[in-house]
């Protein structure tokens, strides 16, 4: 009979780890939902800015694909299961799904809003992360906010 794995002892209390993992689960759901939407827009963009937007959206969804893995792995390191189904993501996300075929300008507007939504979700997790002195998660959140704030700025610039 195999012995049970030792309890997690990383200097963060279990209730704080669970609360942080819950916040990260929302960030994961938002990030995955944004990944799906950005990939959809990459496939379906049309118009005079096609090549520019097609390439830009590909860079964005590729970066998001790596990010969702990093977020999920942090949730696991904290001792919680990472959500991984459409049902879980749809319950946790703040990103509205797009089932239609918006024009390029509307795609950009939606992505600006969605990038900023991800920033707000990440920012909401910070208070518990700070209280728990969870520097690895703080670093992850800071990096995610930087990426999404910059991406929102770049997308917004296309609308000005």
From TrEMBL:
Gene Ontology MF: a single term: ferric iron binding
Cited SUPFAM superfamilies: Ferritin-like
PROSITE patterns (UniProt xref): DPS_1, DPS_2
A Pfam family reported for this protein in Swiss-Prot or TrEMBL: Ferritin
InterPro entries in alphabetical order: DPS_DNA-bd, DPS_DNA-bd_CS, Ferritin-like, Ferritin-like_SF, Ferritin_DPS_dom
Residues of the Ferritin/DPS domain: 24-160
Family listed: Belongs to the Dps family.
Record's protein name: DNA starvation/stationary phase protection protein
């Amino acid at each position: 009979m195999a012995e049970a794995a030792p309890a997690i002892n990383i200097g963060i209390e279990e209730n704080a780890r669970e609360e942080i993992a819950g916040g990260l689960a929302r960030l994961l759901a938002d990030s995955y939902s944004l990944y799906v939407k950005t990939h959809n827009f990459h496939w379906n963009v049309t118009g005079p800015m096609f090549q520019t937007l097609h390439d830009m959206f590909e860079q964005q969804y590729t970066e998001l694909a790596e990010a969702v893995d990093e977020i999920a792995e942090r949730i696991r390191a904290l001792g919680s299961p990472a959500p991984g189904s459409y049902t879980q993501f749809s319950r946790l996300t703040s990103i509205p799904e797009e089932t239609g075929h918006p024009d390029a300008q509307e795609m950009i507007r939606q992505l600006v809003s969605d990038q900023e939504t991800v920033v707000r979700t990440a920012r909401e997790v910070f208070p518990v992360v700070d209280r728990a002195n969870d520097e690895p998660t703080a670093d992850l959140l800071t990096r995610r906010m930087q990426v999404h704030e910059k991406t929102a700025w770049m997308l917004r610039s296309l609308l000005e």
